[in-house]
Amino acid sequence: MGAACACYAGLPGKRQGAAGRDQLPARRRLFELRQKCFYRNFGISQKFILQKCQNMPTRTPPERLRGRGADIASRSGAADDARYSRNRRRGKRPPGGLNFQGGFSMNAADTGFILICAALVMFMTPGLALFYGGMVRAKNVLGTVMHSMVILGVVSIVWAVIGYTLSFGSDIGGLIGGMDFFGLNGVGLEPKEGVDNLPHLAFMVFQCMFAVITPALITGAFAERIKFTGFLLFTVLWVIFVYSPMCHWVWGGGWLAGLGALDFAGGAVVHMSSAASALACAIYLGKRSGYGKQPFMPHNLPLTVLGAAILWFGWFGFNAGSALAANGLAASAFTTTHMAAAAAAIGWMVVEWIHRGKPTTLGFVSGAVAGLVAITPAAGFVTVMPAIVIGLLAGGICYGGVLLKHLFGYDDSLDVVGIHGLGGTWGALATGLFATTVVNEAGSNGLFYGNPGQLWIQFVSVVATWAFCFVMTMILLKIVDVVCGIRVSSEDENKGLDVSQHSEVGYQL
Fold it and tell me: What are the Ammonium transporter AmtB-like domain coordinates in residue numbering (predicted)?
């Protein structure tokens, strides 16, 4: 301890001698003595510490993007400025970590928040596996669960190698990203241009989880009848040729972003794209054997309810994380997400009660998912009361959408089109009605706030998304069918995918 005090005595700006030390509070003296001992024990010289303090660059408070894909940045606000100034007066370092330019710019709280949100979105994919797995027949449960889990592995690799750069690389004609980040080249710990509060890797992995769950949603349309090899090839091609261009159009600086389309967390990029592709798959693969002649009842509703609960939980990371910062916008998106889901679950239940005479558990959780889908594009642009309206109407709209497959005669096994297609479409259009810059100054006002043009822009984005994804998916399905075949034989379908594709059974009864 004596050696530590001797080392400490020469530091500038500190009181010298016993009298000076006595003026310090006891707890502060103890802290400083421990700090000195730490420096001495680990061989950190006083000269080194002083040199680092003198060479530390000045930092200005970072600008924050308000919402994913926004091109308009704004200052953190008076509270952040005051905290920054107060910390400087106290000699504290700004929050965050070193970037490669030698300054402190990234925000540690935002980074931690986004990584947690990425984990929540990742958890949605196993939740979707359970949600879908409970709704198929028992002989297909493992095959259905396998689809989502394999996508988690395959798409992650595809995203790292080429998907990310096609989505967020330098813009090429408003249609696709360049090869700047091929193989994650240049994607490291430094901030990404335009998102200066996060390490580039954190932004990339957050986006990766969206790329994972989107093709997983499609699997509900061709459940119980797709060939596993064809499914794998289709998934890889779909991420490259459908998801990545759509992502670039909206979030990567493409033509829809330039048009001013609002999509906070994926109404077009995730839900409409997967639904349009699901419709193409349902039409191309045809109906399941026995469809319309025998009932295809869910074999395990508790499994489906558990999956829906996980989806609801993970959706908070999905939408709130799209603020790309731990700020008020994230809190707003979190709240609107929950309220819309609750309202939609009630809306679906009431409509079903009136139509069928009794409410069902499957209907309630399907309604909740419909509300989560509908609020996804609007979560960071609307206030709470409009979010409740969006959710309430989504419950009724998506309930009616599920009935459409019987009217038009296509076999969408698990109602991807009815829930994600109509829910995402309604959510995108509702954003054009209820969006307000009071919530997000980087967005635009909607029709009800004096800007009717925004509704037209949202309509254009809806039409473009459905048309592009449907046509491209049809082309990819034909290619896959020629290369390796895409539908199982009638014999394998009757056995069930668990046995015919994976030589396993879900239940030993």
Answer: 113-507
The CA distance from 36 to 186, in Å, is 39
Please write down the HEC assignment for all residues of 385-418. Answer: HHHHHHHHHHHHHHHHHHHHHHHHCCCCCCCHHH
pLDDT average, residue stretch 407-429: 96
Q: How many CA atoms lie within 13 A of 337 on its CB side?
A: 28
Q: Which residue has the tokens 């906070």?
A: 264
Which residues are CB-neighbours of 129 under 8 A, at least 6 positions away? Answer: 144, 145, 147, 148, 149, 216, 307
Q: Which residues of 365-393 are buried (b: 16+ CB within 10 A; e: fewer)?
A: bbbbbbbbbbbbbbbbbbeeebbbbbbbb
Spatial distance between the Cα atoms of 184 and 160, rounded to a whole number of angstroms:
6
Please, which residues have CB within 8 angstroms of residue 188's CB and are 6 or more apart in sequence?
A: 100, 199, 200, 201
Determine which of 7-21, 315-329, 464-478 has the lowest per-residue pLDDT on average.
7-21
**pLDDT at res. 68:** 56
pTM above 0.70, yes or no: yes
Residue with tokens 């419909």: 370
| Ordered DSSP codes for 131-157 | HHHTTS-GGGHHHHHHHHHHHHHHHHH
Q: How far apart are CA 256 and CA 263, in angstroms?
A: 10
Please tell me the predicted confidence (pLDDT) of residue 295.
82
* Domains, the chain, ordered by start: 1-55 (no CATH), 110-502 (1.10.3430.10)
The answer to whether residues 312 and 327 touch, using CB atoms and an 8 Å cutoff, is no
- The tens digit of pLDDT for each residue in 145-198 reads 999 999 999 999 999 999 999 999 999 999 999 999 999 999 999 999 889 999
Residue-level pLDDT at 292: 80
Sign of the torsion formed by the C-alpha atoms of 296, 302, 303 and 306: positive
Burial group, residue 3, by CB count within 10 angstroms (0-12, 13-18, 19+): exposed
Tell me the pairing of strands 104-106 and 97-98: antiparallel
